[in-house]
Specification:
Layout (H helix, E strand, L loop, with lengths): L24 E4 L11 E8 L2 E9 L10 H21 L13 E4 L8 E4 L17 E3 L11 E5 L4 H4 E5 L5 E2 L4 E5 L5 E6 L3 E2 L4 E8 L4 E4 L4 E4 L3 E7 L22 E6 L9 E2 L2 E2 L14 E7 L5 E3 L5 E2 L10 E8 L4 E8 L2 E8 L8 E9 L7 E12 L1 E9 L4 E10 L10 H9 L2 E6 L15 E9 L1 E18 L4 E19 L5 E3 L3 E2 L8 E2 L6 E4 L2 E2 L12 E9 L1 E10 L4 E11 L9 H9 L2 E6 L15 E9 L1 E18 L4 E19 L5 E3 L3 E2 L8 E2 L6 E4 L2 E2 L12 E9 L1 E10 L4 E11 L9 H9 L2 E6 L15 E9 L1 E18 L4 E19 L5 E3 L3 E2 L8 E2 L6 E3 L3 E2 L12 E9 L1 E10 L4 E11 L9 H9 L2 E6 L15 E9 L1 E18 L4 E19 L5 E3 L3 E2 L8 E2 L6 E4 L2 E2 ...
Parallel strand pairs: 28-31, 32-39, 40-43, 44-51, 52-55, 56-63, 64-67, 68-75
Antiparallel strand pairs: 1-2, 1-6, 2-3, 4-5, 7-27, 8-11, 9-10, 10-27, 11-26, 12-26, 13-23, 13-27, 14-15, 16-17, 16-26, 17-20, 18-19, 20-21, 20-22, 23-24, 24-25, 28-29, 30-31, 32-33, 33-34, 33-35, 36-38, 37-39, 40-41, 42-43, 44-45, 45-46, 45-47, 48-50, 49-51, 52-53, 54-55, 56-57, 57-58, 57-59, ...
Length: 1220
């Protein structure tokens, strides 16, 4: 920490980060000497000359030593540093709203910023001595750029570093031109979101251009839609980055909460909703059908994202803005007035929109999004960036996280400039959560952390807590009890009992007060061991064993078991067996008390089985019943029975019968019959009533022999033999056969032959009974063939029909025919025709024709109707000669000649050819050149029919290049189009362009300000102001956008002249002359000087002859290093004043004699050096000066002071030379 009072300068500064709210002046009253010093000063806050508030400020004091040379050196170093601090902190801002009573002024250095910190109590209220203070007035200039503002500049080169691309805008940025495509087709939504944070307490500005597209048409099933939609919206919002509103008529603004923005709307929205994909494009705000189309307006949204159009800001836009061209747009925000202004350039002039917006002073960080969307109309909408300048602000989040629930309990948001310390500590919040029962896990925020310099990424800090836990224990037990009793309920043995103990840890959440129960833990295990029931003679324990019970937990019920002792029960078993089947028929289980005899007898059961058909085999059951004489021995008794069987004989026969019949069903021969006999024994089971059969025995054998069918003359038996049948058994069915006798059938065949072809034409199959004559005749068939064109050659078939006189002999008859032939003469002509046509179908010349004649003999077959042609005989030859196509100027034939056609005969088709004459196609080429870069821009290939004129004109392409910033140099292409009048010659044309240039001027000014103050801070004389103006020419390449800067030219010269401090009666100015500053250029910082007037001291008289009292004042001035000039001026003046004042009555004139010791050391970059001079004494007379000379005044006293300065310097130099 640097205390300026330690340097001999009591300068105090007030600083607050909120520059936009500053509107008042803070002034600190400080004091020169101990007599007038107060222990507490007043900080006055004034507005328009009226004091609005006074705040107490503690005085900082230091005692100075003047004896040590080393201290003087340190003071000079501190003085230089204080000077730099002074210059950087002048014209700083005070926000009176943030200054509270009880706060004191403290010069704490945090990046050269003086802060106001809470005042501590001071016990020392006594006399403070040896303290120097110089009054300082803090002037409010909200719009000045200071080191507190972190200005960021964005252009096309770093655009992608500061913007996210979303939707149809993604991947559609051109870094060369700065163009950002937002939409290019139907049903698209594209936007870019700003990554950085804008501090709305400072100005910002965006320069660029927008392209709203042009009207398009789309046809659907109902009608043709035409228009342009939807427009471009710009929305500013706080909270989180990358917010995007609704698409469609929402234009990316509606839907964002607590936002403001501007839109250029090209489509009316009347509040309707419609479905698009999975998104409903519902209008989330005020409809705009009442406004002109297109229009622009300011828009705001509420906390629910519902949008409202500011009616006062609505401005109609000219329809011609929808021209698919870029139109310049400027977005300007003025922090002092909180006014957001949009200037949109249109073909009819600039349209201005403006509105004031109240931002959230607690969170001045805002982000913005530029969005556009389309509906069914495919509209191309673009944004182009030129430049953006804003003041960045950093944002940090301190998140307080409950690790138990994983939720944020609280989020603290801090904002500030990069590099500035975060005025926040987590200690209070941590203490608050500790009181609520939390335990701190981790805290990665360190007090004194500074904001980083990347406003595109927030700083995240986390403070993690877990719930505090208080532990306790809970206990339970589970009991096992076993009772031993007789079956009559009497106690048999003492009760058995065992116990298992459990306990669990109970943790109480000190935050939620919820109890968390841990798992139960077994103290004595989780099993009851098995318990064997004690033995009692003559009784059986039920159960004999209580099994081990495992997996016992704390929730298990108490276990209670009863063991009952019963007298032993003896048993016996009676089994009945079927010896025939080997199966057990039944069994009887018997039981009774030990030593008793059972009442059961087997007689009734045996009688039952006899009635079922059984016979008794054996029975070992005691006749007087089973005796239970042995304990736990089960006696088993068996009774055996078998089935009773009765036998008898059974017979069977199998027959063979053959019937002999004519084919009409009449009996032809007597029936033939044969029989085979069989027999067997049958046994009947009286239990199951099942029969058991013996094997069949054949009496006469097991085969029927073969039987030959008897012969009948003139008939054939079918079959001729009935074959033998072997392996006949009793189960074989009776055999019955039929033999049929059929009369014999005789056959004949008639064949028709074609002697011309040697092929059989047809044949006729005949049959009939033996000895009969067939009714078939050949006459009808022969007549049929004659009608077909045949002639009869021979016929050997009997005229009265075929006679079937020979048994089983097939007679064959043949009829031969031949084709009837007629001869005739045939002639033929083959033509060659050539047509000459233009490509439009019109005749190009006379038709060419030629002919060849031929003859031949034709033989006509009357059967096949086939003509047999003889060879053609040529009358005029057998070829067409070559025919050359005639020449037509300006046309090219598709065929240069019709070649010779050989081997023509009478069967050749007529030859018809067409020669088409096509008009010649001529070509031309237009090339566009950039004369500035000497590169070819593009070329256009042209073509057209011979002696036609091309419709292409260069004016559209030239206009496109002009729109891109070019200027036309030359164009040798014909204005009415190229005329293709030279066959097969490519005409070449050139269009030359150059980069257009825009001239502009840039201006700067370097100011010199001199403040004149008394040592108590009061204004002594009006402030002296002067400035030097500079300007330079800026040439802007309209194609590339590149700027070419000229040299800065001084308008008012390059020197600030020396300024003599005005003389005020009774005061001495320090310094007396503000020296001239030469070689000022446009990059020189503004020069600010302060001249302090110190009151002259008078000698005190005590008793008439008291000695004089003197007060020595040590004033250390500063060292200035200019960062841009490379010039270092090291000036040190050590004034030791001896003031002798006599009482006088004339206050108009005071003479003061003092000695001044000068020490001047100046080092110039060029190497010039002014050597150190020995001290000299000078005597001067101070006269009262009425008024400080002002810039531009023309008074005679101004000349006097300008004359005084060189005289004073000359006098000093002469004195130095004399001493040497």
């Amino acid at each position: 920490m640097i205390n300026l009072a330690m340097l001999g300068l009591g300068m105090s500064y007030l600083q607050h980060a909120d520059a936009a709210q500053a509107s008042e002046i803070g002034k600190v009253n400080t004091y020169k000497n101990a007599d007038s010093l107060k222990t507490n000063q007043l900080l006055e806050l004034t507005k328009n000359g009226k004091t609005t508030k006074e705040v107490g400020v503690d005085v900082k004091t230091e005692t100075h030593s003047q004896a040590s040379k080393s201290n003087d050196t340190n003071k000079r170093a501190d003085s230089n540093q204080a000077s730099r601090l002074l210059k950087k902190n002048q014209n700083r801002i005070v926000d009176p709203k943030t200054i509270k009573d009880g706060w004191s002024l403290k010069n704490t250095k945090v990046k050269n910023r003086a802060l106001i910190t809470p005042k501590k109590s001071h016990e020392n209220q006594g006399t403070i001595k040896n303290t120097n203070f110089i009054n300082s007035e803090i002037k409010v200039k909200p719009n000045d750029k200071t080191d507190l503002q972190d200005n960021v500049y964005v252009n096309k080169d770093n655009f992608k570093d500061y913007f996210n691309q979303n939707g149809s805008a993604k991947g559609n940025y051109n870094p060369i031109t700065g163009e950002q495509k937002l939409t290019t087709g139907s049903w698209q939504s594209g936007n870019i979101t700003f990554k950085g944070g804008i501090d709305l307490r400072h100005n910002f500005r965006i320069d660029g251009a927008i392209n709203l597209g042009k009207e398009t048409k789309v046809r659907n099933v109902f009608r043709v839609l035409k228009g342009i939609a939807d427009g471009i919206g710009i929305v500013f919002y706080k909270g989180t980055r990358n917010q995007i509103g609704g698409s469609g008529g929402n234009l990316g603004i509606y839907g964002v909460t607590n936002a403001f923005g501007w839109k250029a709307d090209t489509w009316h929205n009347v509040g309707r909703s419609f479905k698009f994909g999975n998104t409903t494009r519902r209008l989330q705000g005020e409809a705009d059908d009442a406004f002109p189309d297109p229009y622009g307006a300011m828009v705001t949204t509420n906390k629910n994202g519902q949008g409202t159009i500011d009616k006062d800001s609505v401005r109609p836009l000219p329809k011609i803005i929808e021209d698919n061209k870029y139109h310049a747009i400027k977005m300007i925000y003025t922090a002092r007035t909180k006014e957001f202004k949009v200037i949109l350039s249109t073909p009819t002039g600039d349209v201005i929109f403006k509105k004031k917006f109240d931002y959230d002073a607690k969170d001045p960080v805002y982000y913005f999004t530029i969005a556009s969307s389309t509906g069914v109309l495919p509209t191309k909408q673009f944004f182009k960036i030129d430049s953006m300048e804003y003041t960045s602000i950093q944002k940090a989040f301190i998140k307080y996280i409950d690790d138990n629930t994983g939720t944020n309990m609280r989020v603290r948001v801090l904002t500030g400039q990069g590099g500035k310390t975060m005025k926040y500590s987590t200690r209070a919040d941590i203490q608050d959560y500790l009181k609520q029962g939390y335990q701190l896990v981790s805290d990665n925020f360190v007090t004194g952390t500074t904001f980083d310099t990347d406003d595109r990424t927030d700083q995240i800090y986390e403070v993690h807590f877990k719930h505090g836990i208080e532990s306790d224990f809970e206990k339970r037990n589970v009991k096992e009890t076993v009772h031993y009793r007789y079956d009559n309920g009497q106690l048999a043995r003492p009760i058995y009992q065992n116990v298992l103990n459990f306990e669990r840890k109970v943790e109480t959440d000190q935050v939620t007060k919820q109890r968390n129960y841990k798992n139960w833990q077994a103290v004595d295990g989780t099993s009851f061991k098995r318990v064997v029931s004690p033995y009692i003679k003559g009784y059986t324990a039920i159960p004999k064993l209580i099994d081990e019970i495992t997996n016992i937990n704390e929730n298990h019920k108490n276990i209670e078991k009863i063991v009952v002792y019963k007298a032993n029960d003896e048993k016996a078993q009676v089994k009945y067996f079927d010896d025939t089947t080997g199966r057990k028929l039944s069994e009887q289980f018997l039981h009774g008390a030990y030593g008793s005899r059972d009442v059961y007898r087997t007689a009734n059961t045996i009688q039952h089985y006899k009635q079922m058909g059984y016979e008794l085999v054996s029975d070992d059951y005691p006749k007087n019943g089973a005796n239970y004489s042995k304990d736990k021995l089960v006696r088993v008794y068996e009774i055996h029975l078998k089935h009773k069987i009765i036998e008898q004989s059974e017979k069977s026969t199998v027959k063979e019968v053959i019937h002999y019949l004519y084919d009409n069903g009449h009996l032809a021969k007597p029936v033939y019959e044969s029989v085979l006999n069989f027999s067997r024994m049958v046994g009947i089971d009286q239990v199951t009533e099942k029969k058991y059969y013996g094997n069949w025995q054949a009496t006469e054998g097991t085969s029927f022999k073969k039987v030959v069918s008897p012969k009948i003359e003139g008939y054939t038996a079918l079959p001729k033999v009935v074959v033998a049948v072997n392996n006949i058994n009793v189960n074989h069915a009776n055999i019955e056969k039929i033999v049929v006798y059929k009369a014999n059938d005789e056959k004949a065949q008639v064949k028709y032959f074609d002697d011309t072809t040697g092929r059989k034409l047809s044949e006729q199959f005949l049959h009939g009974a033996y000895g009969s004559r067939d009714v078939y005749r050949t006459a009808n068939t022969i007549q049929h063939y004659k009608q077909m064109g045949y002639e009869l050659v021979s016929d050997d078939y009997p005229k009265n029909g075929a006679n079937y006189s020979q048994d089983k002999l097939v007679r064959v008859y043949e009829i031969h025919l031949k084709h009837k032939i007629i001869k005739q003469l045939e002639k033929s002509t083959v033509k060659e025709v050539i047509h000459y046509l233009y490509d439009n179908g019109q005749p190009a010349g006379p038709i060419y024709e030629n002919e060849l004649d031929f003859k031949r003999i034709i033989k006509f077959d009357q059967v096949t109707k086939q003509k047999r042609y003889g060879n053609w005989q040529a009358i005029d030859g057998t070829y067409f000669k070559k025919v050359d196509s005639p020449k037509i100027i300006g046309y090219t034939p598709t065929l240069e000649a019709i070649e010779t056609i050989n081997n023509i005969d009478g069967s050749h088709k007529d030859i018809e050819e067409t020669v088409v004459y096509k008009i010649n196609d001529e070509k031309a080429q237009v090339t566009y050149y950039d004369d500035t870069t000497r590169k070819k821009l593009s070329e256009k290939e042209l073509n057209g029919a011979y002696r036609t004129r091309d419709s292409y004109r260069t004016v559209d392409a030239i206009n496109q290049y002009k729109w891109a910033g070019y200027e036309l140099v030359s164009d040798d292409y014909p204005q009415n189009g190229v005329f293709y009048d030279q066959d097969k010659l490519i005409k070449m044309y050139e269009v030359h362009l150059k980069h257009g240039e825009k001239m502009d001027f840039e201006q700067r000014a370097v100011k010199e300000v001199i403040y004149y103050q008394y040592d108590d801070g009061q204004l002594a004389e009006p402030t002296y102001k002067n400035k030097l103006s500079f300007r330079r020419i800026v040439k802007i390449d309209q194609v590339t956008g590149q700027k070419y800067y000229g040299v800065w030219q001084a308008v008012d010269g390059t020197n600030f002249r020396s300024v003599v401090s005005p003389i005020i009666e009774g005061y001495t100015p320090i310094p007396e002359i503000v020296r001239a500053i030469n070689n000022i250029n446009s990059y020189h910082q503004d020069v600010e000087k302060t001249v302090v007037y110190q009151a002259n001291k008078q000698n005190e008289v005590v008793g008439g002859n008291s000695p004089k009292k003197f007060k020595q004042i040590k004033i250390i001035l500063v060292r200035v290093i200019h960062p841009n000039r490379g010039v270092r001026i090291n000036t040190e003046k050590s004034h030791t004043k001896k003031i002798s004042l006599k009482p006088h009555h004339d206050r108009q004139k005071v003479e003061s004699t003092h000695k001044t010791k000068f020490k001047l050391n100046t080092l110039i970059k060029s190497g010039d050096e002014i050597k150190k001079q020995n001290p000299v004494c000078q005597k001067r007379v101070i006269k009262k000066y009425q008024k400080l000379p002002q810039t531009g005044e023309k008074k005679s006293n101004k000349f006097v002071y300008f004359l005084l300065v060189p005289l004073l310097i000359l006098s000093t130099i002469i004195t130095i030379l004399k001493r040497k």
